[in-house]
Amino acid sequence: MLLAWALTLLGLNAAHAAPTRKPAYITNAYFSSSLEKTSEGVRPGPVVSVLPANADGVAGYFIMDAVLVKPGSHVFEVEILDEKRLKVATMAYDPVEASGEDYIYTVVGSVAGAFPQGWLHFEVYDRVDGGAAIHVSSHAIMTRDQERLAPVEEPQTRQARAEEPVQEASPSEEEAQNDSTGLLDDDVERWLRAMEQGWTPLDEQEARLSAKSEQPAKRKPSPAAAAPRQLPEPPPAAESVREAAREPEQASKRDAARAAAAQARAEVAEQEQIAPQVTRLKDGLSYVSLGVFGRKENAERLLARIEALELPVHIQSDEQGDKTRYRVAAGPFESRDHAKRMARVIADTANLKTTVEAPRVGARSVKPVMRSGETVYVIGLGSFSNPENARRVLSRVQQMAVTAFTQEAEDSGRHFTRVLAGPFPDKPRAKAMAQSLFERLKLWRRIPGVRAVAAASLGDDLMAESAVSSVSEPIEHQSSAKLTTERSPSPTVQEVASSARKAVVHVAAFLHQQDADALEDKLVMQGLTAYQRTSRAPGGRRLYEIMVGPFDNLEQAQRAERRVRQISGVAATAQWERGGSARRVESRAQASRMTGNHMTQPVATQAVKVIETPSADQQDAQDSGLFSETGRQDYTVYVGFFSNYDNAVRLAGQIEKLGYRAMHSPVRVRGREMTSVCVGPFRALQDARSAAKEVVERTAVARTEIRDASFSGRKEGCGAGEPVER
């Protein structure tokens, strides 16, 4: 039948249009008036295009052929909605197990209940393994009063027809289709278009369906039979008079229905002018555009549907002459791939059409939504007593193509420089940007806060600069700036030597610059003047040292030292600069994250001195205490060699609980692959002896060996080494 073919076509279109991430798709869907028992089982009866309204029992059966794409336990649920899209019933099905992909399954359910006359919409959902219900298909059918399903003939007409020796001629193919379905070809086309656009001209179509279904079947006289007798036309009955009286009222209803249908088509066409698309703006983030509306209430209605998904979504207004357009957009998202995934989620969950398009090159930006009299939102990135630190954070944020600025503030007599990002037209977008900056820059312990401010307090220049944050059209695509980590230069010799004596805080020394960068960023975000400098160990390895300062006196450096300990947990050391050189600093700070041996935590209790081989012009460093009498850098305590790697890791964990740094490294002993465990390194031999004694007393280690770490430094402090004492 034609309507069954239409439902099948809709089911196929829905299956092909559905993204592959759906757990199932419908290949065929139709309605039947009954179920018939056969020798092979139960099969659907005749296909129907109209169900009886206000039925006492079962009105019909809804049959779907489904392909289960995702293996697992599938539970189909069908929500039945009336013309106003209000849920009137729910159909539930027993679980079915899909053992593999493309598992074919036929779903049959009875449609029972006193449904009102009009259109019924069937929304099909699939729930896999107890997960969320995912929308997979939509179908619809009309319900009519039972007395209107089969027209009743007058007694005289039935008697006259019985007396006529007529023979029914085979109707043409077109007539058979029309008589069997009650639909004209143009009705089917209009119905398909209506279903695609989400609207149905109910009154108008119902009137045409009723008129067509109530027409008597066409008959042709047999050539051998006599022509039918012409019966006298009966006088108009009282019912006919009443029908004639109701014609103006019905005409007005049809006009109102046509107007409502035209308005619905206009709203749908208005929304589909811009299908949901992913765009990338100048700030480097991506957005999903969901639709453009001429009426704000339509935009707010769509906004409410998307907000239920707990996604950042907002409305942007665009004044075009004397008209205002309202765009609904979701985002921002950190990457285009993330936006594409969210577009698919929105399309599946909210039942919206989604197309992903590339940004249009050369499109012009529109007037910003933010105005001076409105409230906007900014992100607080930190307050700094040192303006240089504020400048560095500002530069890092601006490298991400995000509008940022600084403000001067006073608190308890102290001067601070605040760094803020924005402004943003709404709070969800500001919070999304704060989350993005937190994840991409990794400069804060927690996500930066968002607060509302008056747009007038920011100034016209800043509002113009942030206009890119509120455009509603894609602007010309620009490649996002590549994030590079820029380090502030170490103070020069002249800067440090400007005073007779300067105090500094030596925080830590690292073998890898990325570890030093992370600690430096952490200290800078807390308002400390941190910088890096490099030195070399006797083995030739470069060390990256973190310094804080300089300070005018040692008391200031000691206060900074305590702050560093609280912030990083590293036992930093406050000290005087020696000899006016920025490169010769006596250091008792710890070396942390030497890496390479599965150990990335900073030293907890021991310290390592950072040295540099003296050159010809640095002979005065010999009396600075940087070098031991033997010329060795430090010492390492070896506690054992293990053929079982897990045993080595277990012993290293026990030693760390004692407060020492433990390392393990693969070594070859007499041709065998083993794992060595060592403790340290230590600056003084006495410290190494104390550690060795405690390890023997408090662990299962029977004996240890202290080695010179200047050789084993090439192996991250846990290689072969040169024995010093056992």
Automatic annotation (TrEMBL):
Biased composition annotated in UniProt, kind: Basic and acidic residues: 205-217, 240-257
Highest taxon of the lineage: Bacteria
GO biological process, one term: cytokinetic process
This protein's GO CC annotations: cell division site; cell septum
Signal peptide as annotated in the record: 1-17
Entry keyword set: Signal
GO molecular function: peptidoglycan binding
Protein name: Putative sporulation domain-containing protein
All copies of domain SPOR, residue ranges: 280-359, 371-450, 497-579, 629-709
Organism the protein comes from: Magnetofaba australis IT-1
Chain segments carrying region Disordered: 145-184, 199-264, 469-490
